[in-house]
Structure formats: structure tokens, C-alpha cells
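Late entry, heme C complex.
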Amino acid sequence: MKSSCTMDSMILWARRKSFILTGIVALVLGLAGMAAHAADAELSKEDKACLSCHDKEGLVKTLESGELLSLQISTQTFVESMHLGTSCEDCHSDLDAKTHGKEKKSIKSKRDFSLSMRESCRTCHKKKFTEYEDSVHAALIKEGSKKAPMCSDCHNPHTVRSTKILQPIAQTPCAKCHEEIFKAYAKDVHGQERIANGKIAPLCAGCHQAHAVKAASLGDGVKDACLSCHKNAVEKHMDWLPNTARHFEAISCPACHAPTAQRRVNLRLYDGTEKRQVSEKTGVPQFARLTDAADTQDMGLDERALWSLLKEFNRDGVQGRTVLRGRLEVRSGVEAHQLSDKSKAIKDCNFCHKEGAAPFQSVTLTIAGPDGRPLRHGIQKEVLSSLTSMESVRGFYAIGSTRIKLLDTLLVMVVLGAICVPLGHMTVKRMFKSVREKLEAEKLAARSQPGGPTLPGAPSDTGDTTKQQE
Ligand code: HEC
Ligand code: HEC
Ligand code: HEC
Ligand code: HEC
Ligand code: HEC
Ligand code: HEC
Ligand code: HEC
Ligand code: HEC
Ligand code: HEC
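Prediction complete; structure with ligand written out below:
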């Protein structure tokens, strides 16, 4: 690896040197026109031959789709590009020298042509190619998307400059397709910081990666990116937020840091055995079929429908135990990019831990689709506070809003503790430990009763949960 890098740079250096030499000669001769000629001199005879036809204005071709494809390649920009050392034929190896330019070749559309050329980057950029092949964009193309990007949508092979310089930020290739998100980003803390102070703040790829882009809500990739820059974030939150780890798991960062956003609870189907989100099986989609069948009126699933759906995912012979994991998140992709400075972030416990709290008024159920993006179905919000569903909505008790009385009382104590200071973290932890143990004991007791819930491993109701009307 190293030696090839050195080779590359030596070749580049040698090229540059000869470029400078030729430049000087041109200057000495005092012929203005020679500059362009000097650039030409960088090119091989073969490349020059291609460009003798192709660097002509107005060279266009009408495709079957009716689109016009410009066939003009500017010698000047090609010579200035990072691909100067790459020959036309390295990428265009399939041209037939005998007939080329003489016979008309039919091409369906621009997209079709790009697709036919897409393998050409593989030989020299193996690593990027492999990363990209594992991305949501590549998966979308496999599914037949006409809009998802391949290499040449983000990098023009004939004009590519160093990707280290993306100035102004609108030059990021992501902006042209995710326009609304870009606009939101450009106004938020990171966009503003980037505009003011340059590269330390993330551009799109800083949080999502450029090549191995994954569906944003899948796994912890984006959250890990946040924490890799904000290394002391967990500690800073621990100063005021009890059980920060649990809150970070149950709440996406934008849900507190995009103060104007609307929020919702996302109940994710989660494989408790494999410890990851359940994915829709390719070929035999069942999520849409099951949820549509259970909700013919399209009112959102009620608790009973949700319960039977879970049973379906836990039938005999189905591998892995499927549970629901709640997460509080913002409702739209645009809102996830409206992060503001810390003074505006949500800090008031009552914002969430209060009966009828706004974030709990919208609920969806999701499974990871074949490309990783979530497939959704609406859930009636009452499900969150209902007794039956508490059994399946494991690990998502937003105290107060979902009305577990015992925990409610505890919350008051925690809040008081935070104010009165002497109740340190240890005390709080111990308090929770005893509550948890109590709950666990009650669950166990309930499970051993006949007629208890049949879902394997699902916790049962506790004597302390009180069902209330909205
Ligand atoms: C004699 C002039 C000439 C030369 C030399 C030439 N081309 Fe072309 N090229 C054309 C014309 C004319 C077309 C449009 C053909 C058509 O309408 O089907 C074309 C089309 C193309 C296309 C569009 C796709 C296709 O196959 O039609 C590519 C890519 C291309 N040329 C690349 C090259 C490369 C690379 C070289 C050098 C190896 C080269 N050309 C040399 C004239 C030329
Ligand atoms: C690094 C690989 C690479 C090199 C080097 C390269 N091309 Fe291309 N070329 C491509 C790809 C990929 C496309 C398809 C463009 C797309 O997807 O938009 C293309 C498209 C074209 C087209 C069709 C018009 C267009 O822009 O889509 C022409 C003409 C062409 N190339 C000529 C050339 C000539 C002439 C050279 C040498 C001076 C050259 N190419 C060098 C990869 C390359
Ligand atoms: C024949 C080998 C070859 C092929 C094929 C090739 N490249 Fe390159 N590419 C290079 C070299 C060499 C460089 C310069 C690397 C350097 O100096 O760091 C480069 C640089 C780049 C850069 C800039 C990297 C940076 O440092 O910012 C991008 C982006 C790029 N190539 C994209 C592509 C795409 C897209 C394709 C396919 C259309 C492609 N390349 C095909 C050899 C190739
Ligand atoms: C969705 C847009 C997008 C697609 C698709 C894409 N890239 Fe990139 N690429 C970027 C961005 C943005 C950067 C610069 C930021 C970075 O590296 O994090 C980059 C950087 C690069 C670099 C320079 C990396 C470095 O570390 O020096 C190369 C080489 C490259 N891309 C090649 C490719 C190839 C080959 C493909 C196709 C397999 C491809 N890219 C597909 C957006 C894209
Ligand atoms: C500071 C980190 C960060 C930056 C910078 C960032 N994003 Fe995001 N992006 C996120 C988060 C967080 C989410 C929501 C993830 C979740 O649901 O947990 C997201 C979600 C998305 C989604 C999915 C939207 C949906 O409908 O669910 C897309 C697409 C996206 N981002 C594109 C971009 C683009 C394009 C840029 C650059 C203009 C960008 N992101 C910049 C953090 C970032
Ligand atoms: C050529 C157009 C195009 C470009 C360029 C592009 N994307 Fe996308 N991207 C799409 C399409 C189409 C989808 C699927 C529809 C959607 O989810 O918006 C998608 C999906 C995504 C998703 C998954 C959305 C989800 O629901 O989780 C993320 C994340 C994403 N893109 C980020 C990026 C980033 C980061 C860049 C730049 C490095 C980028 N995109 C560049 C077209 C593009
Ligand atoms: C429950 C709401 C909430 C959640 C969830 C949350 N934050 Fe915060 N965050 C805040 C509040 C409120 C502040 C301001 C605290 C203060 O200044 O007193 C803050 C401060 C910050 C700061 C500034 C720290 C400093 O003082 O330097 C960063 C960075 C930050 N959060 C990142 C994150 C990240 C990354 C996540 C997701 C992993 C996240 N936050 C999740 C509410 C939250
Ligand atoms: C590439 C590094 C990087 C990544 C990734 C990143 N940030 Fe930042 N973030 C910064 C920088 C730099 C600033 C501006 C300087 C500062 O205030 O620390 C900033 C500022 C912030 C602020 C404002 C802090 C304040 O003091 O008011 C918040 C909140 C924040 N980021 C949250 C997030 C969240 C949430 C994510 C993930 C979705 C994230 N960041 C991802 C670098 C990053
Ligand atoms: C943005 C909404 C939100 C805010 C603001 C918020 N919480 Fe929470 N909190 C939650 C959610 C959601 C859970 C559910 C976690 C679970 O059930 O596992 C939770 C769980 C808890 C728990 C139980 C943790 C455990 O050990 O299981 C306590 C205690 C708690 N919050 C206290 C607070 C306090 C005190 C504040 C204010 C300083 C606060 N929360 C602010 C949403 C929030």
C-alpha cells in the first residue's frame, strides 16, 4: 500500500515538475497560447486523440429517452482534475476503435449510460467501492431506484477535484438530492459553525459517512458519530439527567436538541436474541401484509392488534425473540437537522414526564425495510398507557406520561433530589435498584400464574400499574 502511494506521489511530482518546466519554456517564449498547449502535453497521444473530437462545443447526442447528452469533455478541466494521470481508456475500455464515432450507437437514457459505466471505478478504488456497495444508496439502486446515487453522481470523473476541499458547503454532493435537509442543516449549529469556522463541524458525511451511508435510524451509527466528536457529552448530561445512558438509548439526540421539532414514539420491532432491529425479510414481506390486515380502517393498530402481531413474530419455529423497543424521536428528516445551541435544548423533565405529554401523542411501529429504511405503521396512542401493551412495550416506561404510579412517585423524589443536592447519584441509583427488584419480583410472580401472558419472556403487568382513562 505504502509503496504504491509513494509511487503515485512520485509520478505526480514528476508530472508537476515537467509541468513547471514546460510552463517556464512557454513563458520564455512569451507565447500566451502555449499555456493551453502545455496542459495538453500532460496527456498521452491516445487521450489527445479522443479529445481532438470530444473537446468540441456542441457535440451532443440525442438518446432514446429524448434527453440530450453532451459529449464535450474539456481538455483544460480534465488536465486540472485528479484523474489527469488516468487515461480515457482506463475507464472507457469497451469502445470499439474501428466503429467509434462513425456509427451511431443507441443509448436508452443518461441514467442507463451511467449505470453501464458504473463498474469502471472499481479497479482503482476498491476500498471505496466495497464500502459503497454496503450502503443504503447501493441497496436502493439494486431495488431499482432511478434516483439513488452511484459514484459518478457524486464525483464527475472528468472534472473531479480533491474532495478535501468542499467550499462552499453547498458543494457537497449530498445537497443536490437532499435539498430540504441541506437547507435545514445549513441553518443549524453545525452548518453555521462550518460556515464560520470551517472543517471541525461535520458536513453530511461527518455524521452519515460518504460511502457506507446507512439508513439514518438503523443501529447506532449516527449517535456514535455524535459521541465520537462530543467526547464529554455523556458526562455533561450526567450532571443533570439521571440515568443518562438509558435516556440516550430511549431518546434520539435531535428529540431534545431540535427544540421546535414535533416528536413521536417509535416502537421498533427488536430481536431480543440477536440484539438488533428486526429486518423485513426480502422476498416474503410480511410487515405491510400483517399490519394492513389488522388495521383495515387505517386508524392505527390498537393494543390487541399489536399484541397479536407480536405473537405472529414469535410463532413457534420463528427464530429470535421479538420485542418492542420504544424510542422518542423527531417526526421528519428535516427536523433532525435543526439542531440548536445547548441553551435551547429540552431540559424540563415535565416536558416528557407528565400525563398527556406532547411527545407521546403520536406513535408508530417500525421494522427495518430491506434497504434499512424504516417501514411504518401507525399505532393508537392509547396503546402506550394500556396495561396489556405494557407487557410487550418492554423497557419504555416514560414515567408520568405512561402512568406507572410507583415510578411517578419516584420521579418526584428524583427531581427533589436533584434540587436538594444531598441526594447523590448513589442514593438515586439504589432507590431505582430496589424499585426494579420489586418490579422484577412481581413480574416473576405474575408469570408463574396460570393464564399469564404467553409471549416468551415478556414481562407481565405489575400490581402497581393503574389503568386510567385518557
Ligand atoms: C473521430 C472522432 C472521435 C474520436 C477520435 C473519439 N470519439 Fe467518442 N464519439 C464520437 C462521436 C461522433 C460520438 C457519438 C456517437 C453516436 O452518436 O453514437 C462519440 C461518442 C462517445 C461516447 C458516448 C458513448 C458512446 O459509446 O456512444 C463516449 C463515452 C466516447 N465517445 C468516448 C471516447 C473516447 C474515450 C475516445 C478515445 C479513446 C473517443 N471517444 C474518441 C467521436 C469520436
Ligand atoms: C475515471 C474514469 C474516467 C476517465 C479517466 C474518463 N472517463 Fe469519460 N466517463 C466516465 C464515466 C463513469 C462516464 C459516465 C458519466 C456519468 O455517469 O455521468 C463517462 C462519460 C463520458 C462521455 C459521455 C458524456 C458524459 O459526460 O457523460 C464521454 C464523451 C467521455 N466520457 C469521454 C471521455 C474522454 C475523452 C476521456 C479522456 C480525456 C474520458 N472520458 C476519461 C469515466 C471516465
Ligand atoms: C485507472 C485508475 C483509476 C480509475 C479507473 C478511477 N480512478 Fe479515481 N483516481 C485515480 C487516481 C490515481 C487518483 C488520484 C489519487 C491521489 O492522487 O490521491 C484518483 C482520484 C479520485 C478522486 C479524488 C480523491 C481525493 O483525494 O479527493 C475521486 C473522487 C475519484 N478518483 C473518483 C473516481 C470515480 C468516481 C471513478 C469511476 C468513474 C474513478 N475514480 C476511476 C485513479 C483511478
Ligand atoms: C453519495 C455521494 C457519494 C457517492 C455515491 C460516492 N462518493 Fe466518494 N466521496 C463523497 C464525499 C462527500 C467525499 C469526501 C468526504 C469523505 O471522504 O468523507 C468522497 C470522497 C471520495 C474519495 C477520496 C477519499 C479519500 O479519503 O481521500 C474517493 C477516492 C472517492 N470518494 C471515490 C468514490 C468511488 C469510487 C465511489 C463509487 C464506489 C464513490 N466515491 C461514491 C461522496 C460520494
Ligand atoms: C450532526 C450530524 C448530522 C449531520 C451533519 C447531518 N445529518 Fe442527516 N441525520 C442525522 C440524524 C441524527 C438523523 C436522524 C437519525 C435518527 O432517526 O436517529 C439524520 C437523518 C438523515 C436522513 C434520513 C431522513 C429521514 O427521512 O428519516 C437523511 C436522508 C439525512 N440525514 C441526510 C443528510 C444530509 C444530506 C446531510 C447534509 C446536508 C446531513 N444528513 C447532515 C444527523 C446528521
Ligand atoms: C443522486 C441523488 C443522491 C445523492 C447525491 C445523495 N443521495 Fe442520499 N438518497 C437518495 C435517495 C433517492 C434516497 C432514498 C429516498 C430517501 O430516503 O430520501 C437516499 C437515501 C439516503 C439516506 C437514507 C434515508 C433514511 O431514511 O434513513 C441517507 C442517510 C442518505 N441518503 C444520505 C446521503 C448523504 C450523506 C449523501 C452525500 C454523501 C447523499 N445521501 C447523497 C439520493 C441521493
Ligand atoms: C433529554 C434531552 C437530551 C438528550 C436526549 C440529549 N441532550 Fe444533549 N443536552 C441537553 C440539554 C438540556 C443540554 C444543555 C445542558 C446545559 O447546558 O445545562 C445539552 C447539552 C449538550 C451538549 C453541549 C455540552 C456542553 O455543555 O458542552 C452537547 C454537545 C450535547 N448535548 C450533545 C448531545 C448528544 C450527542 C446527544 C445524543 C447522544 C444528546 N445531547 C442527547 C438535552 C439532551
Ligand atoms: C465532526 C464532529 C462533530 C460531529 C460528528 C457532531 N458534532 Fe456537534 N458540534 C461539533 C462542533 C465543532 C460544534 C461547535 C462547537 C461547539 O459548540 O462545540 C458542535 C456543536 C454542537 C452543539 C451545540 C453545543 C453548544 O455548546 O451549544 C450540539 C447540541 C451538538 N453539536 C450536537 C450534536 C449531535 C446531536 C450530533 C450527532 C447527531 C453531533 N453534534 C455531531 C462537532 C461535531
Ligand atoms: C425528551 C423527553 C424526556 C426528558 C426531557 C426527560 N426524560 Fe426521563 N425519560 C424519558 C423516557 C422516554 C424514559 C424512558 C426510558 C425507559 O423506559 O427505559 C425516561 C426515563 C427516566 C427515568 C427512569 C430511568 C431508568 O432507570 O429506567 C428517570 C428516573 C427519568 N427519566 C428522570 C428524568 C428527569 C429527572 C428528567 C429531567 C432532569 C428527565 N427524566 C427528562 C424521557 C425524558
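The CA atoms of residues 413 and 428 lie 9 Å apart. Will revisit in the morning.
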